[in-house]
């Protein structure tokens, strides 16, 4: 397996693309490996998801809710201002593999966020989508939706096209509706 060098990673991260690739060229040993050569893992075994890094505080995030099991923060490429990702703290790739208790908490939070979105943005509906193709960490998209075309992810704003002030304002409105502080913790 090839590892990315720091220069390539730096370029990608400056453009807003987080790769999560290892840069240290170290082998990671499989505890079950009994042969003489070191086990070299796949890239997915080497990295935390970008969401794990946001949850840990290694990357910035506009949190609207957080507890020990689930979090909610604004996506950097929203369909509309107020587009939130509801994410388990535990890194689980597929939603079908999330334990039932955490799944219930995710959906309860998604519903609360959806109600806050409809109230704060005076929109008739909140969209709810699980796609799971871009980041290998279960997440639910909850966003303002007035019509079916609002579900078109090809129309999402790029990170460069979003207005940071509008993103911050949307996060603050949602935090007020959810009764959370600037870190997303319940007041």
TrEMBL record:
Motif Histidine triad motif: chain residues: 137-141
Record-linked InterPro entries: Histidine_triad_CS, Histidine_triad_HIT, HIT-like, HIT-like_sf
GO MF annotations, alphabetized: ligase activity
The HIT domain, residue ranges: 50-153
Top-level taxonomic group: Bacteria
Signal peptide: none
Residues the record marks as active site: 139 (tele-amp-histidine intermediate)
Pfam families on file: HIT
SUPFAM superfamilies, alphabetized: HIT-like
Alphabetical UniProt keywords: Ligase
Alphabetical list of PANTHER family matching this protein: ADENOSINE 5'-MONOPHOSPHORAMIDASE HNT1 (PTHR46648:SF1), HIT FAMILY PROTEIN 1 (PTHR46648)
Record protein name field: Phosphoribosylamine--glycine ligase
Species assigned in the record: Corynebacterium ulcerans
UniProt lineage: Bacteria, Bacillati, Actinomycetota, Actinomycetes, Mycobacteriales
């Amino acid at each position: 397996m090839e590892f990315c060098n720091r220069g390539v990673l730096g370029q990608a991260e400056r453009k807003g693309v987080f790769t999560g690739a290892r840069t240290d060229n170290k082998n990671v040993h499989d505890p079950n490996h009994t042969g003489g050569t070191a086990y070299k893992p796949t890239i997915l075994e080497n990295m935390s998801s970008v969401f794990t890094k946001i949850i840990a505080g290694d990357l910035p995030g506009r949190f609207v809710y957080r507890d020990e099991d689930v979090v909610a923060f604004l996506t950097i490429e929203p369909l509309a201002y107020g587009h939130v990702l509801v994410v388990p703290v535990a890194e689980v790739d597929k939603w079908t593999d999330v334990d039932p208790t955490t799944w219930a908490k995710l959906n309860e939070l998604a519903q609360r966020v959806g109600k806050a979105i409809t109230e704060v943005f005076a929109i008739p509906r909140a969209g709810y989508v699980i796609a799971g193709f871009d980041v290998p960490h279960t997440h639910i998209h909850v966003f303002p939706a007035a019509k079916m075309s609002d579900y078109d992810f090809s129309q999402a704003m790029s990170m460069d096209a979003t207005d940071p002030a509008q993103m911050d304002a949307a996060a603050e409105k949602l935090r007020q509706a959810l009764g959370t502080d600037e870190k997303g913790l319940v007041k």
